[in-house]
Amino acid sequence: MIKKILIGNWKMNPVRLSDAIRLGKEIQKVKSAKATVVICAPFAYLSPFKTMIKKNVALGAQNLFPEDSGPYTGEISAKMLADLGVSYVIIGHSERRALGEDDSVINKKLKAALKAKLTPIFCVGEKVRDDAHRYLLFIKSQLQDGLAGIPKASLKNIIIAYEPIWAIGTGAPRSATPEESREMSVFIKKTIADIFGAQSLAGLRIVYGGSANDKDADGFLKHGGVDGLLVGHASLDAKKFTKMIQIANNI
Ligand code: PGA
């Protein structure tokens, strides 16, 4: 069985390094012998975090730039992240797509992450669910275009995060249900098998994200057809996030 994984996406929070360190210390108090725990912190906190973080928590970034180095003011490469000791990186988050990132840029970023031996957390998700199920075709095209040209042997090193946009954030009307998550997980696996062949499913990890919290984590992890959760606002609350880690540990 694949180890469960809990990924905290802190987004552009907290505003002070001192608060980030406090939160990180609370989270790493939890024993995570069974589940893998990842904190995707803002770029500015990655370096101070690396010296503080213990072995039971891995470090992730929230973005990267696809070139290795050069005249790209304000950007940070996969190589730089790897050199800092970062192991995971979120790619194609809907909040970055909303800023103009398209599938071809996301494809380059995925390739850059893999080249630098980072584990990309590749986000896909629809804005709305229509009765005609066209959202399935939308997810299919995000997968096809995002993963274009990636060798099938690399799929075991990628985590696919299903994050329906309608379920993301504190203002979301509801999170998805474990049934909706499971249905999408099956669809993602079918799409990957169609593109890369059924063997590529061995070791492929899928996580759910979108208002996941300490109340519904058990349901998603047991019945959502996923290997873990990508957690936004609940990961900024040490009590909630550590409870979710404990739930994952007990499965
Ligand atoms: P949320 O965010 O848990 O706050 O909905 C998840 C995400 O956007 O990764």
Task: Please explain how this structure is put together.
By secondary structure, the chain is an alpha/beta fold. 39% of the residues lie in helices and 15% in strands. It is built from nine helices and eight strands. The chain has helices spanning 17-28, 43-52, 78-84, 94-97, 103-115, 134-146, 178-196, 217-223, 238-249; strands at residues 5-9, 36-40, 58-61, 88-91, 119-124, 159-162, 205-209, 228-231. Strands 1-2-3-4-5-6-7-8 form an eight-stranded parallel β-barrel, surrounded by six helices. Helix 3 (78-84) links the parallel strand 3 and strand 4. The model has no long low-confidence stretch (mean pLDDT 96). 2-phosphoglycolic acid is lined by residues 9, 163, 168-169, 209-212, 230-234.
List the helices and strands and how they pair.
Blueprint: E1 5-9, H1 17-28, E2 36-40, H2 43-52, E3 58-61, H3 78-84, E4 88-91, H4 94-97, H5 103-115, E5 119-124, H6 134-146, E6 159-162, H7 178-196, E7 205-209, H8 217-223, E8 228-231, H9 238-249
Parallel strand pairs: 1-2, 1-8, 2-3, 3-4, 4-5, 5-6, 6-7, 7-8
Helix pairs in contact: 1-2, 1-9, 6-7, 7-8
2-phosphoglycolic acid binds near residues 209, 210, 230, 231 and 232.
